[in-house]
Write a structure and sequence with these properties.
422 residues, 5-stranded mixed beta sheet
Length: 422
């Protein structure tokens, strides 16, 4: 009966046929089905947790995964993992479960919350949940992960340091055979080391491409890694790794987390370690305004100061849901040069090659700068999404324009107000 009711509701939702409706109706159906998927995921988690609790008191508790696995035709270990997630979600993050049941939070975002709060006690996890849940529907899982990580560090900075130190003891390298004569080589490293290594590989690959090498960036990164480790010529350039910290974080154990470009929030101790290492670039911000107060350089040939500043400010592509690092993006004029736009920090932003084309009007897209600092993106279906940054850490919210209500607070204009030459 339960399945029949669900099937009936889906049949009603998916009528009429797609061929007879317009783009907006198709998008609305996609959105509705995503909300229903979240509700179904939540109800299954609640049912899995309930079933596991029923088995706790009898002799079958140790084999609950086998029983669920048979019912779902999945491996017992896969069933065990799904049960663990369900129990943790319903026990530790009840508000998230409620939001899923309302169709506001997806399973992917619920997993982000579970993973990032896994080292906290119940009370601390609930505090983080309250701090981030209201905005969860407006951001991607990756954007949510950064918000949650920042909140986790902020709630107990000393505990964050202890967890990171313990995690560093688990660093490792492994190899997994793949098909067709290939294999995967993996490494579990400190975030700063991993970002530095990837930045070096990526920089070398991009330089080779610019010089005319026909290999793809992926192939060039892989070949550079093999050459560097296997005794061949190593990349000549040193990697540029950016960390953004408040001035307070350099001396205050309770200061806000730092931001490691290409990774996300890191604790104050790791921030200090990077700041104290001469081969890194240091970017300091004012804790109250988020303004860049210092751009220190340790490389002999630094990039152009303006490009450096823009990439320090905007750490990823400016398209709302894109997370490609700004180091691999074009610096685009927000207001086109041909339309009178100037080359300044206020008028530049990073766009990856894909979204640079989108912004310039590909296939019915358009992008408009609004007076209050927001950006309005219009899709080929006619939908308008406004984007604005919500805090000095660069977080964004994505809102669909459905009415003419009051505008959100304008984005901080810290960079635009910097003194000359910017």
């Amino acid at each position: 009966m339960f399945e029949t009711a669900i099937a009936g509701a889906l049949d009603a939702l998916c009528t009429p046929a797609l061929e007879s409706v317009g783009d907006e109706t198709v998008l609305e159906r996609i959105e509705a089905l995503e909300r229903i998927r979240s509700r179904v995921d939540a109800e299954q988690c609640v049912a899995l947790a309930d079933f596991a609790r029923r088995r706790e008191s009898d002799e079958c508790g140790a084999t609950v995964g086998d029983e669920v696995g048979l019912a779902l035709r999945i491996a017992p270990r896969t069933a065990d993992r799904r049960i663990d997630v369900a129990v943790a979600l319903t026990d530790r993050l009840p508000a998230t479960t409620v939001a899923m049941r309302a169709g506001k939070v997806t399973m992917a975002k619920a997993r982000v919350l579970l993973e990032e709060t896994g080292g906290l006690d119940g009370a601390a996890a609930a505090t983080v949940e309250r701090a981030v849940l209201d905005h969860a529907a407006q951001v991607t899982p990756g954007q949510l992960r950064r918000r949650v990580a920042r909140a986790v560090i902020a709630i107990d900075a000393a505990a964050a340091v202890r967890r990171r130190r313990q995690a560093e003891t688990e660093r490792s390298v492994w190899m997994r055979p793949d098909a067709n004569g290939m294999a995967t080589l993996g490494a579990h490293l400190c975030a700063a080391d991993a970002v530095g290594i990837f930045t070096l590989l990526d920089g070398s690959a991009r330089a080779a491409r610019a010089a005319g090498d026909a290999r793809t960036l992926e192939q060039l990164r892989a070949d550079t890694l093999v050459q560097a480790i296997g005794g061949g010529p190593s990349p000549a350039a040193e990697p540029l790794v950016q960390i953004t910290v408040s001035a307070d974080a350099v001396v205050d154990d309770g200061a806000a987390p730092g931001e490691l470009a290409g990774y996300g929030p890191i604790d104050h101790e790791l921030s200090r370690r990077i700041v104290a290492t001469g081969s890194w670039q240091r970017l300091l911000t004012d804790p109250a305004t988020g303004q860049v107060t210092d751009v220190g350089r340790t490389r002999y040939r630094p990039p152009a100061a303006l490009a450096e500043l823009v990439r320090a400010r905007d750490r990823s592509c400016a398209f709302p849901t894109c997370e490609r690092r700004s180091a691999g993006c074009d610096l685009d004029h927000r207001r086109r040069w041909s339309a009178g736009g100037v080359t300044s920090a206020a008028n530049l932003w990073p766009l990856c090659s894909r979204h640079h084309v989108v912004k310039d009007g590909a296939d019915g897209w358009s992008c408009e700068l609004l007076r209050d600092g927001r950006v309005a993106w219009t899709t080929p279906s006619g939908r308008v999404y406004t984007v604005y940054r919500t805090d000095v850490d660069g977080d964004i919210d994505i809102m669909r324009v459905t009415d003419t209500g009051p505008s959100p607070p304008p984005a901080p204009a810290a960079i635009a107000q910097l003194p000359p030459p910017f």
